[in-house]
Design goal:
With 538 residues, this protein is of the alpha+beta class. Helix content is 31%, strand content 23%.
Length: 538
């Protein structure tokens, strides 16, 4: 039998190359690109004036590539990776089917299904009894199984965006091809469609796509005419882009420490940092954990300050049943590929319900112009590409499902790690939270906010302990990261003599564990088990 790639384990949609013609269309499937087997048989299934049902069998070794060359065909596959309902129509897509899947299909009237097969007809390769198929499926002997892996040999990546892109591979190719054919790669219709969809998702009136998350922060400050001589309050515990945006606008970042049990900005220290030059506050929903925004908005209102949410890691998070991005006067998002909603390159966006601000931002991002060659103000070139916008539009309907999966994986971590002495988990950032509450009970975030766990951080006793655990995870093929090993105020870019105790402690003790919606529950449990082993031996 021909060897096939291990990553093809379930029915997989493949977008065919299609060339429109006045008399019809030419659809092309490249054997080397679209399906990994030599074709040994080609047959057709057709319907006339009535719907036709068929299938009701599985194959032990046979691979197939199915295309509906006319009309419409609906197919249900059942196999090792679950149930899949597929609709094929007019040869725009094909479905690659590995062995081991029971199939039932129906053809609409006047339809034709084309099937390419890896083997010639052999009755011995068929399973026609459904009960026999289910018994074989339970025994996992319908197809060559993936090599058995011992617990010690499991490799768990820090993120698994490659799995997401494999899952969406056909749609991504189709979407990209459509944008290329449309020939509107800058400021095309897909940009405006995504902006409208993302604004609605965030509960705002406007969304303005830009080149990246840093630009989103910087341009928003400039649109508010915040610049030289002004001060902007930012957390010391964040990615440096938060402060760099302030500096790029010409203003001075004023750092504030974070909470003891949470990376969010310490609300109680914000008011003390306000001076006559303060123009804005940038709270950061770090790691996808919503900041306690109501007290910040109250302070901002008292001092007439602009509040710009840094939501680069918090797509879809909610605070008191309101979605992040709609809590301040504006919000900046990043679509870096690893974000909860990520592009296939750089991208960013500002959301707001302020019409004046939105209009100014649209000009600034496009050379200060509303219309070509008419430059009303000083601007820059920072636009969200049409292809990236179309890909984000493709992914947006999946975001809530992906975030819910992240929460489910976070629950596994909390369940498995809560009772380990030496491992500290996050407490909610709500100001009236009792920090002495049992950590397991404190995980009930739903009363105030719903994180989206862009990162799942734990904190160790000290830097040496953190580094030792990270090395132990690496030895056991588990990915990890540190967010962020150098606080902004101690970086070479700012080199401040100020001290922010909580931010500095978290920088030396934080360790980020694998977190991605395409990781399995078993993989997360495996990571937790390795951590328990580390502490049992140390």
């Amino acid at each position: 039998m021909t060897h096939f790639p291990e990553d093809v384990r379930k029915p997989k949609l493949v977008c065919l190359q299609s060339v429109s013609r006045p008399q019809g269309a030419l659809g092309v499937a490249e054997i080397s690109q679209h399906f990994p087997f030599p074709v040994k048989r080609h047959y057709f299934i057709t319907s006339q004036d009535q719907k036709v049902a068929g299938g009701a069998h599985s194959h032990k070794q046979l691979w197939q590539f199915m295309t509906c060359v006319m009309g419409q065909c609906s197919i249900r596959f059942e196999g090792p990776e679950g149930l899949f309902d597929i609709s094929l129509e007019d040869s725009k897509q094909g479905i690659l089917v590995p062995p081991g899947y029971w199939r039932d299909f129906s053809l609409e009237p006047h339809s034709c299904l084309s099937v390419l097969a890896s083997e010639v007809y052999q009755e011995s390769d068929y399973i026609r009894d459904y009960d026999q198929f289910k018994q074989g499926l339970a025994g996992s002997n319908l197809i060559d199984p993936e090599p058995a892996r011992t617990e010690q040999s499991i490799s768990v990546p820090f993120v698994a965006i490659n799995r997401m892109h494999q899952d969406l591979h056909a749609q991504i190719l189709s979407t990209t091809g459509q944008e290329i054919n449309d020939n509107r790669l800058i400021d095309g219709p897909s940009v405006h469609e995504f902006e409208a969809a993302f604004a609605a998702y965030c509960g705002c009136d406007y969304a303005i796509g830009v080149g990246n998350g840093l630009d989103a922060l910087e341009l928003c400050l400039k649109a508010q005419q915040i610049g030289p001589g002004d001060e902007v309050i930012v957390p010391a515990n964040s990615f440096i882009a938060t402060a760099l945006a302030v500096s790029a606008a010409g203003a001075r970042p004023v750092f504030v420490d974070c909470l003891r049990d949470n990376p969010s900005i310490d609300i109680n220290q914000i008011e003390a940092a306000i001076s006559p030059r303060t123009r804005a506050i940038i709270p950061v929903h770090l790691y996808g954990l919503p900041v306690d925004m109501d007290p910040i908005m109250c302070v901002a209102q008292q001092h007439d300050l602009f509040v710009l949410e840094d939501a680069a890691q918090a797509h879809g998070a909610t605070y008191k049943e309101r979605i992040v991005g709609s809590l301040g006067h504006a919000a900046a998002f990043s679509f870096y590929p690893t974000k909860n909603l990520g592009a296939l390159g750089d991208g960013g966006c500002i959301v707001t319900s302020d019409r004046r601000l939105a209009e100014k931002l649209r000009m600034i991002r496009n050379y200060g112009s509303r219309r070509k060659y008419e430059h009303e103000i000083m601007g820059v070139n920072s636009r969200l590409d049409s292809i990236q916008a179309a890909l984000l539009q493709l992914k947006l309907p999946h975001l809530d499902k992906w975030n819910q999966r992240r929460r489910a994986l976070a629950e596994i971590y909390y369940h498995k790690l809560t009772d380990i002495d030496g491992v500290k988990l996050l407490a909610p950032p709500i100001s009236d939270h009792d920090h002495d509450t049992n950590r397991k009970e404190a995980y009930d975030w739903s009363k105030q906010s719903q994180p989206v766990w862009h990162v799942f951080p734990i904190y160790l006793e000290n830097e040496a302990r953190r580094d030792a655990l990270r090395e132990y995870l690496t030895q056991h093929q588990v990915g990890s990261n540190i967010h962020y090993p150098i606080p902004i105020h101690q970086s070479g870019a700012y080199n401040s003599n100020q001290r922010f105790a909580m931010s500095e402690i978290q920088a030396k003790t934080e360790l980020s564990l694998p977190m991605d919606p395409y990781l399995s529950s078993d993989e997360i449990a495996h990571v937790a088990a390795i951590i328990r082993d580390f502490f049992s031996m140390n």
